Amino acid sequence: MKKAGVKSPRKANTGNSQALAVEGIVSRKKSFVTSRASRFFRLTGLTGRVSSSYTGQRLKEFFLDAGSARHSRSETHVRNAERIVETLGELKGAVMKVGQYMSIQTDLLPKEFADVLASLQQSAPPVEYDLIASVITSEFGKEPEALFAHFDPEPHASASIGQVHRARLSNGTEVVVKVQYPDVDKNIEGDLSNLKTILSTGSIMGYRKSDLEGVFAEIRDRLYEELDYDQEMENLREFRRIFKRDERIRIPLVFPPYCSYRVLTMEYLPGDPLEALWASPYTQEDRNRFGELLFDLFANQILRLGLLHADPHPGNFAFQKKGPMILYDFGCLKRIPPYIREACRDLARCGLEGDYERIDEALLRLGSRDPRRKAPDQDFYRQYLEVLQEPFRPGEPYDFGACKIHERMVALAPLGVSKMFHFKPSRETVFIGRTIGGHYGNMLHIGARARWRELLEPYLND
Measured between alpha carbons, how far is 393 from 352 in angstroms, rounded to an integer? Predict the structure, then answer.
């Protein structure tokens, strides 16, 4: 175990990588399950196993004391999460993508469950090259070898709904080609319905099913957008326009003649992965610079621009010692309405000031507080704020390398459960929360030190 505040050496990947939504590559290739019937039977079978497990758990708890019941319930959560991960990893596609979305919704899922589900972020075996070639041929009427001067049949990166291959245009430009797996879009409705049923089974998600409808509707909308590579091409262009004068950030150029609904071709922009920041030639000053940049970039998007790159997977960012941070994968964007941006600013202001009454009012405007219930007492908010305010206190730079906020939040879990039904999932904040939570993890890995309050305050005074 690593001691608090002491960095253990990070294993660095010294090779360049352009990992667009990379959840990792393993050597074993898999065929992709596209049949609706096959997917339906696998998911309904999974639902039956999960449901039976929780039914048995509830019966068992009648004969256990409170402590033993909690321990047994925790083991059941882990066992069922492992079942879900195994099946979703085999099926890939929309259902795996939604599983990844849910894995960092720690306010919706038990911690044990979310921890296991998080493994969906790590690995996605690539599919056979013939399937990739068939998609390109269908979209352009040419095989990859005829469309490009060179097309590498070995995947450069593999993910839940598609994979990336290196290629070269006729003019010599090095590119990466993102290709969607066949028929992913045809399975969205069935996959999403089945996964919603599974996650509603046995009270895995402790909220009323009606309260979850908006959350799943938001996930559905973002998923359809993420499957539309024409839209992602426009997203890339929009971000390039917004940040064209910001030399700290670089965004790939797209090549429209080689793009379609299921194929996206971009310039190859190599960079070092996040874990490489802990190896030579990177220094603590470099980590501080990139941490400040990441914080500033997303505070700007949430609180000022209202246009959020909402996939915080570390593989979507690359780094250069003397250069900018590179952003990849613009399939999942969240456009934040002005009233939500203002509520987020108010929530942050009140959090810094300890104004508990206005915190509750901001949460109501965000849709995160259930108006059918009275406000929790101020001591409830105070205990959470004492933890969340930690990086923003005036004084010395705060070191995310020694941060233990996540552990302190786990210790507050019983308090959160006691007030659970005072709150509800908010459709508008699902992807905002996902992004903040994901980048909290990225900041821990970067281990940056800075005066974070000074970086945040300009966005609160607009």
Answer: 8
Q: Do 341 and 431 have their domain in common?
A: yes
Task: Say whether the peptide bond before residue 281 is cis (omega within 30 degrees of 0).
Answer: yes
**Are both 336 and 414 inside the same structural domain?**
yes
pTM, full prediction: 0.79
| Beta-sheet strands, E only, within 324-417 | 325-327, 333-335, 398-399
Give the strand order in the sheet containing 263-267.
150-158, 162-168, 174-180, 263-267
Question: 209 burial class (0-12, 13-18, 19+ CB within 10 angstroms)?
Answer: exposed
Report d(CA 154, CA 270) in Å as an integer. Answer: 17
Closest CA to 58 of 69, 67, 71, 47: 69
27-49 residue pLDDT tens? 344 455 656 667 767 777 877 78
- Residues acting as catalytic residues: 311
Q: 233-268: per-residue pLDDT in tens?
A: 999 999 999 999 999 999 999 999 999 999 999 999
Q: Residues 220, 97: one domain? A: yes
- Among 390, 370, 383, 436, residue whose Cα is nearest residue 414: 383
